Amino acid sequence: MSASHHEAPHSPLLPDADRPHLPPASDGTVTPTGRAGQQTLLAVHEHLRQELAQIQHAAAQVAAGQLTAAEARSLINTMTLRQNYWTFGAFCAQYCRVVTVHHTIEDRYMFPALREEDEALSAVLNRLGEEHEIIAEVLDRFDRQLVDMLANPDGVEEIRAMAEELGDALLSHFAYEENELLGPLGRSSIVV
User: How do residues 5-43 score in pLDDT, each as one tens digit?
Assistant: First the structure.
């Protein structure tokens, strides 16, 4: 399984110069448990990428006047994340919540287990945890902007810009995480 699946877009919030990188692995051993972990991480990230694209498209349509805020909110509510029925009462609440849950699981379970297996991962895992905090702040600002827009429809251009900022940060983060952790995850014995 290749360690480079997606190109990381530039994100001013998550500059690549601040990111530690692991040296290339000397062997490409992948355990059955590790392969399952890799596949799970990739599947979750791919699902979040697809949902993000739908959110960005809806935000662009609202900003262009092709969709009302209420119609966009209805569209978001029919996305597959709605099946989980997590509700903040705002436009992107479901997506924001799922990203937060995903990052919490990584911070509490996956990262500590990987660190225990290989202490050399610490700098990368620490940086990924820091990025989770940065993304949480972007999610919070985006959610508040969406709630404000429902009361004040004049803020549609800010919504489009926030959707782009969120997208750049998440896609950059996902690509960095995959590039750095798919190899170690593949060699690991942790269940993701």
Answer: 556 667 888 999 989 999 887 777 899 999 999 999 999
* Residue 75 belongs to a domain: yes
Amino acid at 132: H
Count up the domains in the chain and report the number.
1
> Phi and psi for 7 in degrees, rounded to 5?
-75, 140
Provide the whole-model pTM. 0.83
**pLDDT tens digit sequence for 105-127:** 999 999 999 999 999 999 999 99
Domain of residue 152: give its range: 31-184
11 in any annotated domain? no
pLDDT tier at 83 (50, 70, 90 boundaries)?
A: very low
The burial class, CB within 10 Å (0-12 / 13-18 / 19+), for 47 is middle
Contact, 182 vs 1, CB < 8 A? yes
Is residue 97 included in any domain, yes or no? yes
Residue 30 · residue 187 · CB < 8 Å:
yes
Residue 48 is encoded by which pair of tokens? 């979040």
Distance CA 98, CA 94 (A): 6
Can you give the C-alpha Rg of the chain in angstroms?
18
Residue 87: inside a domain: yes
Q: Give the rounded distance of the alpha carbon of 11 from its chain centre.
A: 13
